[in-house]
Amino acid sequence: MTRIAVLISGGGSNMVALVRAMQAGGWAEPVLVLANDPDAGGLEKARSMGVPIAAVDHRDFKGDRPAFEKALSDALATAQPDILCLAGFMRVLTADFVAQWAGRMLNIHPSLLPKYKGLQTHARALDAGDLQHGCTVHEVTSELDDGPILGQATLDVAPDDTPETLATRVLPLEHALYPRVLERFVAGDKTLLSLRDVNVD
Ligand code: GRF
Fold it and tell me: Would you say the CB of residue 121 lies under 6 angstroms from ligand 1?
């Protein structure tokens, strides 16, 4: 069965959605949840779901990215994943690390890429007066938030939306989109999946 490692930095709500979907559907196995912060809330959630966990604290490497990534790779090697899912993982990965996982690493980003790569996506969508917003699952390449798009989920921006309310409304779309895209990706299907907020259960 395809082995999936999920990388997180914080609460891991996307990781929870992925793990739940894999455990319910049986189409892949979550073999590791790996955080760059030993205090990441998602680690306890993963442990309670029976998934092996590990943490590599990026602060122990004082900016030495290659050393940090070597430690990540060592932690991953214990689980032997086939695919990496970045899920609220907030560290930028070097081109060398990305190259090792080319075609086998996904990420979810809270905007309709290619719009709003980087941070503060909800505020930027509001500032631009966008009528639609949402999230994207894409393959990770060395260019930040730039790889081939595998799925998008969209919602209508409300006139009274704030960055906070948008983030709150986009998050459930992320939880609906990511597991569906991962299941298709595991099956070798890279055709674009488009979801609207009306058909997200
Ligand atoms: C989400 O908005 C995700 O898109 C972004 O980080 C936020 C928190 O994700 N990358 P999670 O709850 O840790 O999965």
Answer: no
Q: Which residues contact 58 (CB under 8 A, 6 or more apart)?
A: 36, 37, 68, 91
Q: Which residues pair with 193 in a beta bridge?
A: 151
pLDDT in tens, 79-115: 999 999 999 999 999 999 999 999 999 999 999 999 9
| CA 79 – CA 116 distance, rounded (Å) | 33
How far is it, in rounded angstroms, from Cα 140 to Cα 159?
33
**In whole angstroms, what is the distance from residue 201 CA to residue 195 CA?**
11
3-state class (DSSP) for residue 55: strand
Report how far residue 6's alpha carbon sits from residue 173's, in angstroms, rounded to the nearest whole number.
Answer: 18
The rounded distance, in Å, linking the Cα atoms of 91 and 64 is: 12
- With a CB cutoff of 8 Å and minimum separation 6, the contacts of 97 are 69, 72, 73
The predicted model scores a pTM of 0.96
Token reading at 133:
């917003």
Neighbours of 32 (CB within 10 A): 21
| Cα 123 to Cα 128: distance, rounded to the nearest angstrom | 9
CA of 12 to the centre of ligand 1 (A): 7
158 and 178 Cβ atoms separated by less than 8 Å: no
Residue 101 C-alpha to ligand 1 middle, in angstroms?
21
Q: Is 111 in the pocket of ligand 1 (CB under 6 A)?
A: no
